[in-house]
Amino acid sequence: MGKGLLLLHGPNLNLLGTRQPEVYGSMTLADINRAVEQHIDAYDVQFRAAQSNHEGVLIDCLHEAREWADGVVFNPGAYTHTSIALRDAITAIELPVIEVHLSNVHGREAFRHKSLLAGVCLGAIAGFGWHSYILAVDALLHYWDLLRD
Q: pTM (2 decimals)?
């Protein structure tokens, strides 16, 4: 396939495994990155993962992805509900981006029900714990296959 995948994690995701495991699960961020990397091992996909608690750094990662990636799986964390700047960056890079969340944001507080990013993403997957990332990667792989047909 010869594609590039950026797995991008937003604020507080560096605390996975210890931060509210009843909501976010017990897997660490390194565990999730490893699980995704193993999942795509059978495909010809260049893989990079990054995490930041800073909005500007996440924007920089998205901008840099234009140079090498063919898609992004992105858990923007709380920036989902607040960041017009990330929305603009997703639009600007012209890559398929899948928004992903560990928890079911629609079953939580009302302020989490609105995503400022969903409208410029290829799709969104939420509520399946760490497996949400695998589902998002599979959706991106399927999207790439559709483009080839």
A: 0.91
